[in-house]
Amino acid sequence: MDAVRGARGESADGFREFVANRSSALLKTAVLLCGGDRHAGEDLLQNALIKVAGRWNRVEDPEAYVRQVLYRQQVSRWRLKWPRREVSYGEVPDAAAGDGGTSSAELRVVLFAALARLTARQRTVLVLRYFEDLPEADVARLLGCSVGTVRSTTHRSLARLRGLAPELAALGPADGEQPPSRDYAPVEVRP
Asked: Closest by alpha carbon to 143, among 78, 63, 54?
């Protein structure tokens, strides 16, 4: 009986240590998945950690497992029939004064505001593809959909993001330039 209690105590200590060391990185991902809403991100992470705590003894790669629980919970949230909150503005915000450039802090604010106006599905796909830097096949596997669905959702999400925040276009590739592929597909090498 003491051996079982000892194993549970070591397991609990390992879980506490993991949460202490990795919770800030996981919170960043959760906040992005929630469209910049820190409170919703904290709730999402807390619920994921509660689910993981009960299975901690069987988890081989804790970071990957917690992230997968986060993604799946976010997918479950957008599939619910609850009405979605939308953010509306009474007036168009004034353009930034100065040299016409936008500081990185201003771009982050614009990006978070634009992400918040995307649907949860669009936001999740963009976070997984560009923040987590996952290939399309991994995103499809995590979200339980096809690679084609990930591609089309990514395309539509980026188009909507460009429409919501045209000032972010300066961060992307120039007209006619193809962005580098993030997929890890084999490449033909010529001598």
From this structure: 78
State how far the Cα of 52 lies from the Cα of 47, in Å rounded to an integer. Answer: 9
On whether the CB atoms of residues 158 and 126 are closer than 8 A, the answer is yes
pLDDT of the residue at 54: 86
Angle in degrees, 0-180, between the axes of helices 38-53 and 2-33, rounded to the nearest 10: 150
Q: pLDDT tens-digit profile of 66-114?
A: 999 998 888 887 666 555 555 556 666 555 444 455 577 787 788 888 8
Amino acid at 154: T
Q: Tell me the whole-structure pTM to 2 decimals.
A: 0.50
151/125 Cα distance (integer angstroms): 9
